[in-house]
Write a structure and sequence with these properties.
The protein is of the alpha+beta class and about 600 residues long. It has 15 helices and 17 strands. Among the domains are: about 120 residues; about 250 residues, Distorted Sandwich (Beta-galactosidase, Chain A, domain 5). Helix content is about 40%, strand content about 20%. An 8-stranded antiparallel sheet has the order 7-8-9-10-17-14-13-12, with no helix packed on it. A 5-stranded antiparallel sheet has the order 1-2-3-4-5, covered by helices on one side. A 4-stranded antiparallel sheet has the order 6-11-16-15, with no helix packed on it. The longest helix has 27 residues.
């Protein structure tokens, strides 16, 4: 008994000391020992030079990559040059350069490309840091260096390996021990930061097992928050532009886990997979994306779509977006396209002409054709302003016809320009600076405003009804009351009807319980020339026309002005853009109805 008392504490201590190694083993026991192992293996790279001989698209992409790689051979090495608080542009350029050069080396065998990628990695590893105060910068640089280290492992001399290893550990991997806010967020920062850190961890896992384990443990615990934002139907709350950013890194994270460890940790959800439908439908016949939130309207053909096509057998998503995007068909993740393509994909079901997705930012889209550049197209949304990169844009829409985007979204401002002026761009509180930026408010969107009040930032508008496009007609209805709460509107709905046969979209607003004589403003932003004729407006652009007709029992009138921020608001001058407004006063009954018909020229 005395011996047991002496031995038992030692036994327990021994078990406690070995617990980390058990956890390490469970997460890293399936790690592939050889490099490359992140997103590609040596066999994958070896296939490039042979498969390009019979695969025209692959050969075209590789030629584009090799052309870019040639330009990098002569370019000066990157400098640690900040833009405001960000090093992000440098990190992104490093990722593009290193992955482009590495793929070009594997597709041609030309060691000049590998040598230049080695020089790029050694250069950035000598930076004082990768700017952890803005962690996206660290994450993208970690992805760049981690992939270069892994993909060129056999080429790199021992001395360079050691220096790159040390830089990747010092500037990225060891930082996993710090408590950063992005670790528990549910948007693009989670996907990007954990994506880059996962690549760094898997690149150095055999030499840094404890740090690699910490990264993988956190990914398993926290990354499902980011994946959850696609629920339930695949709509990305931050818009198509940020879908490209966040989802590209989410796919990189998943693909890295699968190739290196043989598991996706349960992160490949149906909603995530459905998001490729979202981004396809959010691209209009003009090739422009519906740029709600802070995203741009030019997203090209995201390389991530190839991954989705291979996983869901939906090559039509890639083909449709590529066809619509035309010359703007590549993004900075192009080197990954050659790894994610699946030329064996069978022809899939053609895309529907309408699509609706629920979630934090519900979205509905209708079109008359996927192949006609002059097709009629409507994209309309509900949602909530105070999500990451959100705007006060519930009830807003974009409209295209005859190759023109008639109703546009002003999109984002330049972050650094506004931050340098001391504006707190990401203060989402009701009184935050963000809502003094004109293009972020309801006043600068294609929606309706009551009593000159901003939208309630916590108001969640939803779709109350949706009918897909059948026999030339489809519709969607938005409950606007939650965002109009500051105007004390009791009930508010906005109904969109898409009439393919008559090439017309109808927007009907029903308001109840409005304060008598309160102002009611129906707004639309356009780049077209505007001619007002009573209740009608004719828009003209590039020889094409669109007519707007306002129908209401309550008197009102059209006005048009340059799209500039009113006094007391921030915003950039948009003298080539016009703000169309139908203005009225609420009747004494407090009930107001307005129907606006938007009809494409014959």
């Amino acid at each position: 008994m005395t011996i047991l008392r002496r031995v038992l504490p030692l036994f327990i201590l021994l078990m406690l000391c070995t617990l980390p190694s058990f956890a390490q083993q469970s997460l890293l026991q399936s790690l592939k020992p050889d490099h490359p192992r992140i997103m590609a293996t040596s066999d994958d790279f070896a296939k490039l030079s042979t498969e390009r001989e019979t695969d025209a698209e692959l050969d075209s992409i590789l030629k584009e990559i090799e052309k870019s790689a040639d330009s990098y051979l002569k370019a000066p090495l990157l400098e640690r040059k900040m833009t405001g608080k960000r090093l992000l542009s440098v990190s992104r350029e490093a990722l593009l350069r290193i992955t482009t050069l590495a793929v070009a080396y594997h597709s041609t065998g030309d060691e000049r490309y590998a040598a230049r990628a080695e020089a790029e990695m050694l250069n950035v590893c000598q930076f004082s840091d990768w700017n952890p105060n803005h962690y996206l910068d660290v994450a993208e640089m970690a992805a760049a260096v981690g992939l270069g280290y892994d993909w060129l492992y056999e080429y790199l001399p021992d001395d360079s390996r050691q220096k790159i290893h040390a830089g990747l550990r010092e500037h990225a991997l060891r930082l996993i021990k710090n408590n950063y806010w992005w670790k528990t967020c549910n948007h693009n920062w989670n996907s990007v930061c954990y994506g880059g850190m996962t690549i760094a961890a898997l690149a150095l896992a055999e030499d840094e097992p404890e740090l690699a384990r910490l990264v993988l443990e956190e990914v398993k615990k926290n990354n499902p928050r980011a994946v959850g934002c696609y629920e339930p139907d695949g709509v990305y709350p931050e818009g198509p532009g940020y879908w490209v950013y966040g989802t590209s890194y989410q796919v990189m994270l998943i693909d890295s886990l699968e190739t290196a460890l043989g598991t996706d940790m349960g992160l490949t959800t149906p909603a995530l997979l459905a998001s490729s439908q979202f981004v396809a439908h959010a691209t209009g016949p003009t090739g422009l994306a519906y740029n709600y939130a802070d995203g741009g309207d030019k997203v090209g053909t995201p390389a991530a779509l190839y991954w989705f096509a291979s996983r869901t057998n939906t090559p039509d998503n890639v083909n449709a977006v590529a066809r619509l995007s035309g010359a703007n068909r590549r993004d900075r993740m192009l080197p990954f396209a050659v790894l994610w393509r699946s030329p064996e994909s069978q022809a899939s079901k053609p895309l529907d002409l309408s699509w609706c997705g629920r979630g934090e930012q519900p979205l509905a889209m209708f079109r008359t054709s996927w192949t006609d550049p002059n097709a009629l197209y409507l994209a309309a949304k509900a949602g909530r302003p105070n999500i990451n990169h959100g705007h006060m844009d519930s009830g807003s829409f974009v409209l295209e016809a005859d190759g023109i985007r008639w109703a546009i979204d002003l999109g984002a401002v330049n972050y650094n320009d506004y931050e340098q002026r001391g504006i707190h761009l990401f203060d989402h509180k009701q009184s935050g600076d963000r809502w003094n930026i004109f293009p972020y408010t309801n006043f600068g969107h294609n929606t309706i405003t009551v009593d000159n009040q901003p939208y309630k930032v916590t108001g969640q508008s939803t779709f109350t009804d949706y009918k897909p496009l059948e026999q030339s007609t489809g519709s969607v209805s938005v409950d606007m009351a939650p965002v109009l709460a500051l105007a004390k509107v009791e009930k508010a709905t906005r109904d969109f009807t898409f009439d393919a046969k008559n090439r017309q979209v109808t927007v009907v607003d029903h308001l109840q319980g409005v304060k008598p004589q309160a102002s009611i403003d129906w707004t639309m932003v356009t780049k077209a020339d505007v001619a007002i004729d009573g209740h009608r407006i004719q828009l003209t652009q590039s020889g094409k026309t669109l007519q707007l007709t306002a129908i209401s029992d309550t008197p009102g009138e059209w006005s048009v002005s340059p799209c500039e921020p009113p006094e007391g608001m921030y915003g950039d001058s948009k003298r080539d853009t016009r703000l169309i407004v139908w203005s009225a006063k609420a009747p004494d009954s407090g009930n107001y109805d307005l129907k606006v018909e938007l009809t494409a020229g014959k």
